[in-house]
Design a protein that fits this description.
Number of strands: 5
Shape: globular
Distance between the termini: 74 Å
Order of helices and strands: HHHHHHHHHHHHHHHHHHEHEHEHHEEH
Largest sheet: 5 strands, mixed
């Protein structure tokens, strides 16, 4: 009895250490600048409570908006909002994944899974992203944990035990538009593994889905707005999604490699093939070992089912609506890591030297990629988020305001991070989403800038709305001369034009 208590205490202590490791690795860069989508999220959440459902341009449900809205009553700093909206959900997801791995296999598998998740540069990056990806992944991890209990634990199959799953699914539906795919996976899982309880799970899923009906009109408006944007800016679809045939390999590669650039070279191909070969060999050996143990195989089949169907359903939907991107389906990554960990921590009774060696090689490769990717993320600005905060500070120091400088954006409004950080310090001018078709039309469009001494043109996303570079030509046709090109990682060039270089030099000396 005493030994059992000590064992439980040891597991609890290790879980705490793994959670602390995950937390510590997610603190650096937590206070970094918001990038485009994060700043848009912050601006929307900062509006009055009565306007929190005015989110037609943002193709996301409203739960994170409300969470951040109330969080802003305490602070609007980057680290605080990310802590509430992304970091805490990611830690909860790691704990839920630990418990799921324990139920599926054992504590050793759960430890390896949690270690890989804690050190994953992909998971770290989106644990610091002020968007609903981490929040939705948390609900999915909790839902899969509840689903396993419902299917395999007879004491959890009462109607009352479905209440937590219903609540989790409702909150998941209001976190991400990809969460319905998680609900579909639950439905098919019960159909396959516990068919006699289909009525119960079907009723719970109907209740969860029905809860979303009040928000359905807003969702349809958002869908229409998204379709209009894809029509207006043809290249926008490639910005928000990946080509269909590339989507699956790219998604799984990002889960494994994280922020490491996916350059198709000998090193990348060799490592990828090595991981794939190791997994297939270990799976084959384990299947051979378990083939007469139907009860043990059920957990394997359940895990593989979750991974395959969680991937396949959104991928098939993407033939009609391009939705699949690694960050949007990041709830699959914990399942993938459980699979990796289960291969690494093979059954103790399987005395096979070659298996042990291959399992250790797989573990070393995965952990090394995580450590290297996380180090690169912390040290390489080009792998971090767009530093709009510093760009705004630099612009304020270099350029005069007071009606002398205008910031020109080739979009329908100034970019969200500029509005968040510049706080109307400079006058702005936006050309709209429509692509300029001729130089003359562009000149007519931007005529109001002619009264300013200095014009700053942002190249950011301009390849989508001004692919022929009419805007710089039109600015120069008004007598402006390019004086400086400001370059910030991931933002690109900001081209500064002036009518009088001497005036600009004297202005800079004054500043």
């Amino acid at each position: 009895m005493e030994k059992k208590k000590n064992s439980k205490k040891s597991v609890l202590n290790l879980t705490i250490w793994l959670v602390l490791l995950a937390l510590i690795l997610r603190l650096p860069l937590l206070d970094g600048s918001f990038w485009l989508d994060e700043a848009a999220q912050a601006l929307e959440s900062a509006r009055p409570f009565s306007q929190q459902l005015n989110i037609i341009p943002d193709f996301q449900p409203p739960l994170l908006h409300y969470i951040l809205h109330f969080a802003m009553y305490l602070s609007k700093t980057e680290w605080w909002l990310r802590l509430v909206g992304a970091l805490i959900p990611s830690i909860i997801a790691i704990v839920a994944t630990y418990k799921l791995a324990t139920k599926l296999f054992d504590t050793q598998t759960a430890k390896i899974t949690s270690l890989l998740l804690a050190t994953s540069s992909f998971h770290i990056f989106f644990s610091q992203e002020l968007r609903p990806y981490s929040l939705a992944a948390m609900w999915a991890s909790l839902a899969f944990l509840q689903l396993h209990s419902f299917i395999f634990n007879k004491s959890s199959q009462s109607n009352f035990q479905l209440v937590p799953l219903i609540i989790i699914n409702i909150l998941g539906l209001y976190s991400s538009y990809l969460y319905p795919f998680v609900i579909l996976v639950q439905f098919f899982a019960v159909l396959l593994f516990r068919r006699k309880h289909m009525k119960k799970i079907f009723l719970s899923l109907i209740i969860s889905t029905a809860s979303f009906l009040p928000f359905l009109p807003i969702f349809l408006h958002q869908l229409q707005a998204g379709q209009r944007l894809r029509t207006t800016i043809p290249g926008w679809e490639l910005v928000v999604s990946h080509p269909q045939l590339e989507a699956l390999p790219l998604t799984y590669s990002k889960f494994i490699y994280g922020v490491i650039p996916l350059d198709i070279n000998i090193t990348f191909v060799s490592i990828s093939l090595a991981i794939l070969a190791l997994c297939l060999i270990l799976l084959a050996l384990l299947h051979q070992y378990y083939r007469k143990q139907e009860k043990s195989l059920k957990n394997w089949y359940f895990l593989l089912f979750l991974i395959i169907f969680s991937t396949l359903i959104p991928w098939l939907i993407s033939f009609w609506i391009p939705v699949i991107q690694p960050k949007r389906v990041m709830y699959i990554q914990p399942l993938l890591y459980i699979l990796f960990a289960s291969l690494i921590t093979q059954p103790k009774t399987l005395k096979l030297l070659s298996y042990n060696i291959l399992a250790k090689i797989l573990f070393v490769i995965l952990l090394s990629l995580n450590i290297y990717g996380t180090y690169q993320y912390f040290t390489q600005p080009k792998l971090q988020r767009e530093n709009w905060r510093e760009l705004v500070a630099y612009s304020k120091a270099r350029l005069p305001n007071s009606g002398k400088t205008v910031m020109l954006f080739a979009f329908d409004e100034p970019f969200a991070p500029w509005r968040w950080y510049a706080n109307e310090h400079f006058d702005t001018f936006s050309t709209g989403n429509s692509t300029p078709t001729t130089l003359n039309k562009t000149q007519d469009l931007i005529k109001p800038i002619f009264k300013y001494q200095f014009v700053a043109v942002f190249d950011y996303l301009r390849d989508l709305t001004d692919p022929n570079d009419f805007i710089p030509q039109a600015v120069e046709s008004f007598g402006y001369e390019e004086f400086e090109v400001i370059d910030y990682p991931n933002i690109g060039f900001v081209r500064v034009y002036t009518k009088d270089k001497q005036l600009l030099m004297s202005s800079l000396e004054t500043n």
